[in-house]
Amino acid sequence: EAQVTQNPRYLITVTGKKLTVTCSQNMNHEYMSWYRQDPGLGLRQIYYSMNVEVTDKGDVPEGYKVSRKEKRNFPLILESPSPNQTSLYFCASSSQTSGRADTQYFGPGTRLTVL
Amino acid sequence: SQQGEEDPQALSIQEGENATMNCSYKTSINNLQWYRQNSGRGLVHLILIRSNEREKHSGRLRVTLDTSKKSSSLLITASRAADTASYFCATDHKGGSARQLTFGSGTQLTVLP
Fold this sequence. Notes:
Structural class of chain A: mainly beta
Distance between the termini of chain A: 36 Å
Helix content of chain A: under 10%
Helix content of chain B: under 10%
Number of strands of chain A: 11
Order of helices and strands of chain B: EEEEEEEEEEE
Oligomer: heterodimer
């Protein structure tokens, strides 16, 4: 089954404790992206990757890191989480057939709480 | 920055009625997409309409695009309780980074049985 998976689905942590949220897709997509979703703000893009070893900042990259060492994986790293990073996070992937932003396939989400 | 803005923010209708949601955006686009999100779940792609298209259909969904008004509408006909969800428009705007979609804040649709 074609899918995007994220782990963990739920995470409660404390300020300053480094954490990683994993994202994996099995559709051989070149493009992957991370979003955060907050009430009233919709989805905001954190980082995206056009292909292996190619990453770029989205609209709200501060406090986050990503890496793309393999095509299928795109982990999101919070080196020193803060309470304002409490949010619902989504990973998404897309093929690159048209060269533009086409249909994106979303993971189930990771609900992060930073105390 | 927010590109697409949905209207209304919330919509409540009876089962069997049609639901119309609107999306306005600020700068020229390559394409506009509509997504659905059930509470707390991932978004699911519904339909994509390109800037040179004016209308598109998919099952009970009808999407229109008016590039002169920088707006789009999503019509769900003969709504069902299972259509209850949040609906988002997302735009790929010209001059922006390739592969970057900008999402609006969504319309919460409630279909009452």
